[in-house]
Amino acid sequence: MASETLxxxxxxxNSTAVAPESQKPAGDGEKETELGNKTPGSKRSLTxxxxxVLALLGVTGYSFMRQPSGVPAVAVTTVAAPTETALQSxxxxxxxxxxxxxxxxxVERRKExxxxxxxxxxxxxxxxxxNEKSWQxxxxxxxxxxxxxxxxxxxxxxxxxxDIHGGSRYMVGVFDGHAGFMCAxxxxxxxxxxxxxxxQEIEGINKTISAPLSDAVVRLQRDxxxxxxxxxxxxxxxxxxxxxxxxxxxxxxxxRLADPSQMSRLLGPAVSGSCGLVALVDTDANxxxxxxxxxxxxxxxxxxxxxxxxxxxxxxxxxxxxxxxLSRLAREHPGETVIRSGRILGGLMPTRAFGDSRYKWPIGxxxxxxxxxxxxxxxxxxxxxxxxxxxxxxxxxxxxRHKLGKGDRFIVVASDGLYDQMADADVVQVVAQWxxxxxxxxxxxxxxxxxxxxxxxxxxxxxxxGNRRDEIIxxxxxxxxxxxxxxxxxxxxxxxxxxxxx
Length: 502
Ligand SMILES: *[C@@H]1O[C@H](CO)[C@@H](O)[C@H](O)[C@H]1NC(C)=O
Ligand SMILES: *[C@@H]1O[C@H](CO)[C@@H](O)[C@H](O)[C@H]1NC(C)=O
Hints:
Elements: E1 10-13, H1 47-55, H2 84-101, H3 106-113, H4 121-129, E2 133-137, E3 142-149, E4 157-164, E5 169-178, H5 182-202, H6 211-224, H7 230-257, H8 263-271, E6 273-282, E7 287-293, E8 297-303, E9 309-313, H9 323-332, E10 339-340, E11 343-344, E12 354-355, H10 363-375, E13 398-403, E14 408-414, H11 416-419, H12 424-436, H13 451-460, H14 470-476, E15 491-497
Parallel strand pairs: 1-4
Antiparallel strand pairs: 2-3, 3-15, 4-5, 5-6, 6-7, 6-12, 7-13, 8-9, 8-14, 10-11, 14-15
Helix pairs in contact: 1-2, 2-4, 5-7, 5-8, 6-7, 7-8, 12-13
One 2-acetamido-2-deoxy-beta-D-glucopyranose binds at residues 304, 306, 308.
């Protein structure tokens, strides 16, 4: 498994869990289109990806230390790792399917996809469970379940979880990359330490942090005043500083070094892009603060007094469907038609994002650098048409703060790959049923010991009419990358179970 493409998709910091490494299959970057040149994604074989999945066998499993007190009764069970046989037959079937679809026109492919052998239940389980994890945080006050299923190859979604300064704060972040994985990878690796440092800076504990972070904190304190609470300010400062480091500080460093061999390392994250959402739960303050840039989404599952469930959004999507975003763009770029075909300058779906320097760097910088970047294989290093007044895209997050109440039972944090398949109310209902199924008297059954896996299984089993059938996921998962990207996106899910005593 000594492959440079194997990356850690899920970063955990100071948590009580295993931290496996892997990557998985799939395709055709759709969040950022290459204008006028919409080629299918790489035709790389699955061998490397599956090596990653197999490598996981040694570390996969259920890491669950202790039953959290007051959490809805969840059995502590060990789930068998996916059998090697099932993972191998997944690799073989996908490899064969890729060969069959290669070189076909779009129309031919659509027909052929319907003739591919679908997966068995064992193969479905192997794919769904290869990345699932579960653990406790904040001394058992929280339970975290995560899972990821890829469509892009390599996957462009990352999760990052970990303790945050203060003793009772825990963060769960999802970073949904586009136009490559490099930006999302950096965010997953650096966001938790950045938030940690921002909080300490604001609380006056440590002043020895990076210049972009100090700048962001100073600017926020000046602009918004010291009355702004520490956690929202720290999250905002960390998001702004991260983007500043990835897009501007790295550019300055590259220009200073004038060393072409450093191009990909320093500028690669800037020419790809990523959405980012961080939910920070504070079990002492009994609150959750969500910072969001892009179109990932956080949902709160609320159990009402009469036993029914309600979904409450803890973030707003930043897309062309968001009226606030349309107003902001019109205000910042008077006289320009920024949104075309529902995308920023016809290319980018989210209206806020990290990286994406083609919508941020000054025109002169783009002209000077993009030809070399293109020549080095960065295929998104091209200026969008009608680029008049960058920046068009910001990483500035919108903050939602929520005091946790009696009925607030869980938070779902997920990339848009989940919400493409399911409505908010359905997501909350499915997770609620996963809890209820633990009570034998409920008469409900679940195949999964992990709430996130259960949710992804439901998402990929749902047909266009909201009905769920096993055949649908057996079909959906059998479609190989890169064609799979036309049917489903990378899906990353974290379910945070809140203490029932809240
Ligand atoms: C302050 O930050 C520096 C560098 O990150 C670290 O080495 C040091 O331990 C920190 N000091 C405190 C008091 O946290
Ligand atoms: C439960 O309560 C909510 C809010 O109070 C209400 O909207 C809903 O109709 C009730 N459902 C049932 C089945 O009683």
